[in-house]
């Protein structure tokens, strides 16, 4: 038995979407706007429609879930992690209540700041400044799908106690008429410090590759607000399926590297510095569960899918490796070579 | 006049101590400071003597510790006359005088024949040929070059050949340096554009790759989130390395300015400067 919610306009009954411009829930039909908290309070009083899934094989049952759209009554089939989606029949945004209950309830969310149009524009801008893109890629690489997705993230806090020692040298050189005298002074440098980290993000969805999610960082936490389901309206969302423990090692590596780098930044004024020993201890670890906004743009060119992702807060866009037109590379190489060759030829007085 | 007298006395004593009992004839090479070893001095002495006899015009080098406050040109003339340098009826000769504590030099030309041969431009060329060696402390090569170039000029004059301006005297160091410069020029005109083009293309290609894992978390250190609790720099030891400087070949840029003082056909003419 699974519970779903369609947020509907209290005025006309039309579907409500979260509007990233106004940061309010907006009716698709009558344009009325409501505070997310207002609608949440209203819906807490309402009965929700229940439905149960049936006739799945055991494998399918393990991975798939079926719901009834509370707006049109159609069956909606999703995978087990889907937390917010839209009805394929009536288009109403649908939120799966059970994906946000108990320990699954996120602590925070950064609401979408940028719209679908911004994502499409960002993709076009993304091609600029890349002169080696094949012309046909620009012209024929059609966007097949643009999807606003709240990606589950673990946000790790920790205080590190870091210590390191380095072997450093300071070199002085002086010249006499016949000799060059080099004096090398050797030092041992000892550095210790406390470095705290706040909300280092690690995506908690196995569907999202780390290399994409790492690349769209950073997120700015000024916009981080306590989670409310109504922010999900009109977007897709998945609950986490990578545990805190499984994500932690790579975050610990990142914090370790940055702690050592912070200590290393204090070893200035030497000719060379080589680390001898490094140690980082972690204290006061804390983790929060948050949904962060990501626009996913899927394109197709020459029967190959290309995936691009845009940070829904900052607009930073990254994507699959873009093909290179090697003819353009060679022409550019020759052009630069010839220009410089001629300039040097004239400059050197030949 | 009083000063001149003092100068003559000073140089006379100096010269007497070092040379009077060794050679009856004036030396072609005299090194008070000790910039040359015995072998080098003997080699230069022989070379200078050979050319001087061959062209009947003396080629001399004098290296003194100090000028005692006198002008280098005056000192050169004093040396020349006191020692009775020069060949032929008008005591023709060319003298390179080096004052080590001031790092000054003077080329003094004396005699009708010598002044005809060693015109301003010719002395300029001689000067440019050895000045870089002098500046770099390669005294043997500097003096060797001075003698060879002077001899070549005398030879060219005798055979009525216009020398430096049209066909420069062959200097292995200069030629080698010129050859190296030309090679560098040839290589750089291809290599520099090649490297720049390659770097530009690689940078532009790298823009096609935007995804990637992150291995640091510096963005998530809050303001005042880093407190250094210990910072110690402990001195361990020091070592010293000495390397003998290999002096570069000359670049013909010279080490100091020079000027040409007056000199009648039979008198002195000078080129002097610092090195």
Structure summary:
The complex is a heterodimer of chains A (350) and B (275). Chain A is of the alpha+beta class.
What does this structure look like?
The complex is a heterodimer of chains A (350) and B (275). Chain A has 350 residues and is of the alpha+beta class. Chain A has 7 helices and 17 strands. Chain A has helices spanning 36-45, 58-63, 116-127, 135-140, 210-215, 244-264, 326-347; strands spanning 2-5, 16-19, 24-27, 33-34, 49-51, 64-68, 75-79, 82-86, 93-96, 108-109, 142-175, 179-203, 225-226, 236-238, 272-301, 304-311, 317-319. In chain A, the strands form 3 sheets. In chain A, strands 1, 5, 8, 9, 10, 11, 12, 13, 14, 15, 16 and 17 form a 12-stranded mixed β-sheet that branches. In chain A, strands 2-3-4 form a 3-stranded antiparallel β-sheet. In chain A, strands 6-7 form a two-stranded antiparallel sheet. In chain A, a hairpin with a 2-residue loop joins strand 15 and strand 16. The termini of chain A are far apart. Residues 47-56 of chain A have low confidence and may be disordered. Chain B is of the alpha/beta class. Chain B is built from 7 helices and 7 strands, in the order αβαβαββααααβββ. Chain B has a 6-stranded mixed β-sheet, with helices on both faces. In chain B, strand 1 (29-31), helix 2 and strand 2 (58-64) form a beta-alpha-beta unit. The longest helix of chain B is centred in the last third of the chain and has 35 residues, at 172-206. The radius of gyration of chain B is 28 Å and the shape is elongated. Chain B starts with a helix and ends with a strand. The interface between A and B is large, with 72 and 52 residues. Strand 12 of chain A pairs antiparallel with strand 5 of chain B, so a sheet runs across the interface.
């Amino acid at each position: 038995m699974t519970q779903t919610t369609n947020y509907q306009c209290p005025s006309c009954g039309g579907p409500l979407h979260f509007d990233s411009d106004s940061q309010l829930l907006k009716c698709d039909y009558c344009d009325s706007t409501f505070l997310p908290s207002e609608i949440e309070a209203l819906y807490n009083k309402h009965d929700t429609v229940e439905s149960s899934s049936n006739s799945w094989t055991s494998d399918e049952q393990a991975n798939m879930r079926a719901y009834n759209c509370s707006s049109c009554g159609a069956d909606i089939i999703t995978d087990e992690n889907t937390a917010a989606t839209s009805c394929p029949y009536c288009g109403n945004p649908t939120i799966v209540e059970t994906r946000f209950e108990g320990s699954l309830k996120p602590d925070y969310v950064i609401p979408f700041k940028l719209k679908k149009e911004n994502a499409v524009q960002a993709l076009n801008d993304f091609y600029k400044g890349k002169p080696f893109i094949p012309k046909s890629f620009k012209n024929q690489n059609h966007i097949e799908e643009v999807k606003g997705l709240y990606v589950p993230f673990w946000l790790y806090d920790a205080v590190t106690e870091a210590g390191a020692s380095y072997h450093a040298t300071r070199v002085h050189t002086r010249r006499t008429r016949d000799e060059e005298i080099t004096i090398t002074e050797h030092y041992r440098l000892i550095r210790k410090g406390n470095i705290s980290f706040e909300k280092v993000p690690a995506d908690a969805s196995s569907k999202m590759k780390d290399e994409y999610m790492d690349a769209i960082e950073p997120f700015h936490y000024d916009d981080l607000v306590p989670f409310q389901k109504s922010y999900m309206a009109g977007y897709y969302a998945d609950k986490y399926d990578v545990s805190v423990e499984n994500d932690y090692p790579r975050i610990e590596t990142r914090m370790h590297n940055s702690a050592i780098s912070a200590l290393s930044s204090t070893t200035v004024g030497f000719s060379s510095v080589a680390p001898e020993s490094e140690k980082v201890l972690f204290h006061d670890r804390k983790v929060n569960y948050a949904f962060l906004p990501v626009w996913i743009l899927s394109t197709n060119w020459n029967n190959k899918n290309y995936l691009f992702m845009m940070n829904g807060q900052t607009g930073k866009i990254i994507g699959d490796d873009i093909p290179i037109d090697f003819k353009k590379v060679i022409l550019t190489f020759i052009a630069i070579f010839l220009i410089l060759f001629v300039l040097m030829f004239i400059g050197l007085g030949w | 006049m009083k000063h001149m007298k003092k100068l003559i006395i000073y140089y006379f004593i100096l010269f007497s101590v070092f040379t009077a009992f060794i050679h009856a004839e004036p030396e072609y090479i005299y090194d008070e400071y000790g910039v040359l070893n015995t072998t080098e001095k003997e080699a230069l002495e022989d070379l200078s003597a050979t050319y001087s006899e061959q062209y009947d015009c003396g080629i001399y080098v004098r290296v003194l510790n100090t000028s005692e406050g006198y002008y280098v040109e005056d000192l050169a003339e004093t040396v020349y006359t006191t020692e009775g340098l020069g060949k032929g009826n008008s005591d023709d000769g060319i003298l390179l005088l080096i004052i080590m504590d001031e790092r000054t030099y003077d080329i003094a030309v004396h005699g009708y024949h010598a002044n005809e041969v060693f015109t301003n431009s010719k002395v300029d060329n001689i000067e440019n040929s050895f000045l870089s060696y002098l500046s770099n402390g390669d005294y043997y090569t500097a003096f060797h070059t001075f003698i060879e170039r002077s001899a070549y000029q005398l030879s060219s004059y005798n055979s009525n050949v216009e020398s430096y301006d049209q066909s420069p005297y062959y200097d292995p160091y200069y030629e080698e340096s010129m050859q190296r410069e030309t090679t560098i020029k040839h290589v750089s005109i291809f290599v520099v554009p090649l490297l720049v083009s390659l770097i530009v293309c690689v940078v532009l290609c790298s823009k096609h790759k935007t995804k990637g894992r992150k291995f640091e978390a510096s963005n998530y250190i809050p303001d005042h989130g880093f407190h250094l609790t210990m910072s110690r720099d402990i001195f361990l030891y020091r070592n010293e390395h000495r390397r003998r400087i290999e002096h570069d070949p000359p670049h013909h840029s010279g080490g100091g300015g020079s000027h040409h003082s007056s000199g009648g056909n039979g008198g002195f003419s000078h080129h002097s400067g610092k090195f």
